[in-house]
């Protein structure tokens, strides 16, 4: 195992009952990487994420996070799920939710001052300090997403996983999100999942294509003038040396 | 109502006073645990637990009268069977993902069937109606102590683990990823639900007790921004429904359980209707306001109901 590998997959296969979802996956994600997992729906992106989180166990092969089995490394992982999964009637404020990032630190009883300070600090990093008392479900999609990022940050992670952070948000909020991630990437490894197959934002350093098998791509610096003209924003082309889709 | 207040002072009908005290005390547990049940959306599971209580009541009566175990009160049977049902149903809902609803529905009915069989084989006449729909005349002085004791346990545990329960109710997966033993807390929550259900079975009965667990919390949910506020409001609503229900049932000579539940149901309906009317009124004002301004152009197309993002 390389010195600075955060996530390693060695010959990992996984399937639900009879359906094989991932086949012989070998993968290394290095420290301070900002990698993007892309692939078609049903291609195994979520499965890959759940294997890293230890929510699923591989049928064969070995997954290691920080050199440990995923379940043991969990506390060092920050996780942001899709915000659409939440009960729209649940009564909880922004602060309530961000504090959940520190729920494992006390056996029982109320949160301490240090927890509240960490939560406020996390909210500050995503620019939501002034909304601590607001009802989570009354926020817009982009705001809710930032609260969920803050919740993950409150647990002080070394590896940050984001599931479909660009789903259901518009371009303006998306660019703001990438700004935050770029800043966080200075001190933590970031892994995001997206269904967007061809183009990823210019902050991503590494692309992991998942469709039953996994192929890692470096990002090239070649950016076509045509692409720029069509999308009007900085995008980078993913170099597909051997097409596999 | 003055008639009811006088009756409370009458030593000949002490059961009414006991029912009121038990109702008010139990309301604290009902408000707190009911809030978790509504927020976690497990009313159906709570319903199954409460119906399984009949098995324990039946078995206790049988042992008391057939086997001569005098100490084996129906309340003890209810407690044991409620906790057993909570753990069994909890395990089913955790591990039998695909057939969860079928298995829980079956346990619900089987629990009641076992209770009725025991009652049928118990010598002497026992009216299962008392247990199914409540009978406040069954409440005795020592029950108050029982209710107070259970109340203390339930509320104490619910509040001590508040942050854990809040995290698990909101996002179970995230809590698990933080290293919380989610299954353990889920089973504890179901056990607390089981104890709560037992508190008022004599007042409202097995069949209807579930409504008293969920309706106050559902009403309170409309006024609350945080889970503990929802708990506080549901305790208040639960006390109000119980006291008003007992008052009406005494004044108009109605059975207490159904009266309490009908009042709770009516309050829930009234709040829903009032909220809907208020929202459409606000909507109408907004639309007429927008028509007269250039702001009518700005709509969040992706999610029309959501407020606009300030950037």
In terms of quaternary structure, the protein is: heterodimer
The total count of strands of chain B amounts to: 0
User: Which segments of chain A are poorly predicted (pLDDT under 50) over 5 or more consecutive residues?
Assistant: 221-235, 241-245
Helix content of chain B: over 70%
Tell me roughly what share of residues is in helical segments of chain A: 25-40%
Number of domains of chain B: 1
Give a quick account of the main beta sheet of chain B: strands, pairing sense, barrel closure: none
Architecture overview:
By secondary structure, chain A is α/β, with parallel strands linked by helices. Chain A has a single domain (5-237), classed as P-loop containing nucleotide triphosphate hydrolases (Rossmann fold). Chain A has helices spanning 45-53, 70-73, 94-99, 113-125, 141-154, 171-184, 225-231, and strands at 5-16, 19-30, 34-38, 60-65, 77-80, 159-163, 189-194, 199-201, 206-211, 213-218, 235-237. In chain A, the strands form three sheets. Chain A has a six-stranded mixed beta sheet with strand order 5-6-7-3-9-10, with helices on both faces. In chain A, strands 2-1-4 form a three-stranded antiparallel beta sheet, covered by helices on one side. In chain A, helix 4 packs across helix 5 (141-154). The two termini of chain A are 29 Å apart. Chain B has 311 residues and is mostly helical. Chain B has a single domain (2-292), classed as ABC transporter involved in vitamin B12 uptake, BtuC (Orthogonal Bundle), CATH 1.10.3470. Helices cover 77% and strands 0% of the residues of chain B. Chain B contains 14 helices and no strands. Chain B has helices at 2-9, 14-40, 43-66, 74-95, 100-120, 128-133, 141-160, 162-170, 172-177, 182-199, 201-204, 209-221, 227-251, 256-291. Chain B is globular and about 75 Å long. Mean pLDDT of chain B is 88; it is low at 294-302. Classes of the chains: A alpha/beta (245), B mainly alpha (311).
